[in-house]
Amino acid sequence: MIRHLEASWPHEGCGVILRSGAGEGNSWRVVPLPNASPTPRVAYAFAPEAWLQVCLDADTRQEAVVSVFHSHVDAPAVFSSEDRRQAAPSGIALLPQVSYIVVAIRGGRAASASQSVWSTGGFQTVPLPLADFRFEKPV
User: Fold this and answer.
1) Per-residue pLDDT tens for 13-28?
2) Can you name the CATH fold of 2-133?
3) Is residue 79 within 8 Å of 122, Cβ to Cβ?
4) Is the CB of residue 115 less than 8 Å from the CB of residue 125?
5) For residue 71, how many other CB atoms are within 10 A of its CB?
6) 0.85 exceeded by pTM
7) On the chain, which terminus has fewer CB atoms closer than 10 Å, C or N?
């Protein structure tokens, strides 16, 4: 996820995280998606055909979308008012069981991250340590 978001800079990157299995048999899969927004430096959008393919593949593989992720370019890792409007038009969450991860990318490198989840009619946001997403040692 982090590599995709950093490689997308200076545009916002985006994608989803899928999970299959339950309990200790969980397996996770990161699916980077192209940003189809007409203003990719300040917004992200999934192309309808790419989103449909993710959903069809997830169904075939018995996976569930657990998180939508995207980056903010040279801006804070906060779930913005626009992010909230897109995720919950008219105050109704489109994917109430899905979390939203935002990663701030500054100068092409991940700087901070947050996660927002739908709870009691609104989104609650908490910071995420970037170390949780890095599996390789920094050089």
Assistant:
1) 999 999 997 656 689 9
2) Cytidine Deaminase; domain 2 (3.40.140)
3) no
4) yes
5) 28
6) yes
7) C
